[in-house]
Design goal:
The chain is of the alpha+beta class. Helix content is 25%, strand content 30%. The strands form four sheets. A ten-stranded mixed sheet has the order 1-2-4-3-7-11-9-10-12-20, with helices on both faces. The chain has a four-stranded antiparallel sheet with strand order 8-17-19-13, with no helix packed on it. The chain has a four-stranded antiparallel sheet with strand order 16-15-14-18, with no helix packed on it. The structure holds zinc ion (ZN).
């Protein structure tokens, strides 16, 4: 049985001057294997990942673990406590307005400089260790910045410092009203088949600010640099990171959490994290899109809306996806506007409220999707 320890990591401070910390659960196997980092609820309203982590911990207590798994549930104690009436406003740092999932460290020039100083003959594990240290040193410098840094960035960097030690990073999120979907770097698309997630978004190997990218892009970039310096070595660091969207925000479902934990265990089993484990992916249809074909549909006019197209269900071009009621036109033919699908698509998520302003992100949809 793997050993489990629990520590606390300080990630923020409230106005009373009290430290806000998060629990860090750590399982260490007896045999060597991959290092895994899993966090949930960086967006405070996206709570289901905590249930997934609960089920993972239950399973790991009895697993023949190889390597190490670190789990940080409810990793944003600021975001999860900002309520307005019935809702959790957990998407943005309320002080500076920054998205809680955009303050991570990434600096291409640091990677380029590191690549130029690498002794290419040294063993790969040693090189990985050195690279990790250089990124963590840079993060420490950022945290010690004499001008200070914003609330979200500080919290992100504290977490990233942990996450960057890992070979596998899973960041557990939820959509507004959403079906399961996962962001997968294009180079790791084969790995998508080991999760029980029907909808896959293939993202370019480029940094756009989120934790998954702040992990895999650094290694991908280093790989690119080293492949230019010494192409004969065929560099591959085998680091993967994913953003997993486990259904809708503000919802807890223990059965769904168990299903998603099995899905994570299936992927980890494939990556060699266990001895004698039987976790396998389910035989399900998986569809994928490239990020450019994951389209946002905005509302043209404000009003009150009924969402007819359900997340995860295939929709034909021209099919009515939503009906908007216009309060100023209730007595005439313009009372109800039908919003039709511009092409064949799969709605993945929609806005959670029935009242919308013009220009609201009504739906996000897969277009030009294909079987994976
Ligand atoms: Zn999120």
């Amino acid at each position: 049985m793997p050993e489990c320890t629990k520590d606390y990591l300080v990630v923020a401070q409230n106005a009373s001057g009290r430290n806000l910390n998060v629990p860090v659960y750590r399982f260490v196997g007896e045999k060597p294997g991959p290092k895994v980092y899993i966090q949930s609820s960086i967006h405070g309203a996206e709570v289901q990942g905590n249930v997934v982590i609960y089920h993972l911990i239950e399973a790991l207590k009895h697993a023949e673990l190889k390597g190490e798994i670190i789990l940080v549930p409810n990793c944003n104690p600021v975001g999860s406590n900002i309520k307005s009436g019935e809702y959790t406003l957990g998407r943005f740092d309320p002080v500076n307005g920054q998205n809680w999932n955009r303050g991570y460290f990434f600096d291409e020039s640091l990677i380029r400089n590191f690549a130029e100083t690498v002794n290419i003959e040294q063993p790969l594990p040693e090189l990985k260790k050195q690279f990790r240290q250089s990124i963590k040193d840079a993060i420490d410098n950022r945290l010690a910045e004499p001008w200070g840094i914003g609330l979200a960035q500080r919290l992100n960097l504290k977490l990233q410092r942990f996450a960057f030690d890992a070979d596998i990073v899973l960041d557990l999120h939820n959509g507004p009203v959403s079906t399961r979907h996962i962001y997968v770097p294009e180079y790791a698309r084969e790995s998508a088949k080991y999760f029980n997630i029907a909808n896959v978004i293939l993202i370019p190997n480029l940094f756009a600010g989120a934790l998954d990218e702040a992990t895999f892009c650094q290694w991908w970039k280093l790989q690119e640099e080293l492949n230019q310096i010494a192409p004969e070595k065929q560099w591959d660091f085998n680091v993967e990171a994913f953003t997993m969207e486990m259904g809708s925000q503000e919802v807890i479902d223990f059965n769904a959490g168990h299903y998603d934990a099995q899905s994570v265990l299936s992927y980890l089993n494939h990556k060699g994290c266990f001895d004698n484990a039987s976790y396998q992916p389910d035989d399900i249809e998986r569809v994928a899109v490239y990020l450019k074909d994951y389209k946002i549909m905005y509302s043209q006019q404000g009003g009150i809306v009924e969402y007819l197209a359900k997340p995860g269900e295939k929709v034909q071009q021209g099919q009515i996806m939503a009906k908007v009621l216009n309060i100023d036109e209730l007595d005439n033919a313009k009372a109800v506007e039908d919003i039709k699908a511009p092409c064949d698509l799969i709605p993945i998520l929609h806005f959670p409220s029935a009242s919308i302003l013009g220009g609201t992100q009504l739906y996000k949809c897969f277009t030009h999707y294909f079987e994976l």
